[in-house]
Amino acid sequence: MSDVESRVRKIVVEHLGVEEDKVVESASFIDDLGADSLDTVELVMAFEEEFGIEIPDDAAETIQTFGDAVKFINGAL
Amino acid sequence: MFDLTGKTALITGASGGIGGAIATALHGAGATVALSGTRVEPLQALAASLGDRTHVLPCNLSDAEAVAALNKQAVEAMGSVDILVNNAGITRDNIFMRMSDDEWASVLEVNLTSTMRLCKGAIRGMMKARWGRIVNITSVVGTTGNPGQANYAASKAGVVGMSKSIAYEVASRGITVNCVAPGFIATAMTDKLSDDQKGAILTQIPAGRMGDAQEIAAAVLYLSSVEAAYVTGATLHVNGGMAMV
């Protein structure tokens, strides 16, 4: 597991209060992990802070799953 | 009455009568205040009279970039923005059939759009903190309408609808969004009215007098307090009974 992946997973687990093994690549924040739309905004804010990157709104809307988040962050670093 | 010790507040339009009174009230309750406005001198004079826990952040609210920067400057100066008071507003009165697109757009830009931008900027930090208070200053004319003020009334009614919508979205994060709607308040602006004009206005006000800026500030102080946590999406009308809505 990459470093980015584990850091993203840690944020998701802490923020959404879900079991770590539920946070798989295809897991949708809203459909599988119980996030509401404001949670997804907060997750993006937490990713920005953790990785020191800017995630514009149009990009944020494409981040639907754990895999999307890891992929986007890897691309932005 | 209410204790805001340790809280930080950004107040726009703090160079005016009502804004100055709001800043004074929040500061008096223990908050650290960032005073924003277009005119630097009155802001500095107010900061000097308040003493410690004050920051002066001049900003032209018709400049989108300056508005975006304002929240960041406030966070740099104070560490956070726990309380946002959108008080700044402009008027460009004209009868509707003579009102130009420019008169319309400039009032909407400052009164509504800049309020939207500042709310967006401040809510970011408030969501993280799981606590926040936004108080938007509207006007009785946003509810009643007023001849010559189609643009101003639209902007103020717009702020009310926007505030309620935001209030829905962020209530679960401990953030409240409310409005205070002043009626006729004695300020430099109303001092310019003739005695006849004032007399005509007073016949419409059951209380028989104009309000004081401090009476608006007291409403803002309440809505900014810890005690007002369960009040959100509300508009508190402070108008001497002029419009009971």
TrEMBL record, chain A:
Residues 2-77 form the Carrier domain. It is found in: Cytoplasm. Keywords: Cytoplasm, Fatty acid biosynthesis, Fatty acid metabolism, Lipid biosynthesis, Lipid metabolism, Phosphopantetheine, Phosphoprotein. One of its GO terms (biological process) is lipid A biosynthetic process. Its main location: cytoplasm. 4'-phosphopantetheine is transferred from CoA to a specific serine of apo-ACP by AcpS. This modification is essential for activity because fatty acids are bound in thioester linkage to the sulfhydryl of the prosthetic group. One of its GO terms (cellular component) is membrane. One of its GO terms (molecular function) is phosphopantetheine binding. PROSITE patterns: CARRIER, PHOSPHOPANTETHEINE. Pfam families: PP-binding. Carrier of the growing fatty acid chain in fatty acid biosynthesis. This is Acyl carrier protein. It comes from Loktanella fryxellensis. The gene is acpP.
From TrEMBL, chain B:
PROSITE patterns: ADH_SHORT. GO terms for molecular function: 3-oxoacyl-[acyl-carrier-protein] reductase (NADPH) activity; NAD binding. It holds the Pfam family adh_short_C2. It catalyses: a (3R)-hydroxyacyl-[ACP] + NADP(+) = a 3-oxoacyl-[ACP] + NADPH + H(+). GO terms for biological process: fatty acid biosynthetic process. Its EC number is 1.1.1.100. Catalyzes the NADPH-dependent reduction of beta-ketoacyl-ACP substrates to beta-hydroxyacyl-ACP products, the first reductive step in the elongation cycle of fatty acid biosynthesis. Belongs to the short-chain dehydrogenases/reductases (SDR) family. This is 3-oxoacyl-[acyl-carrier-protein] reductase. It comes from Loktanella fryxellensis.
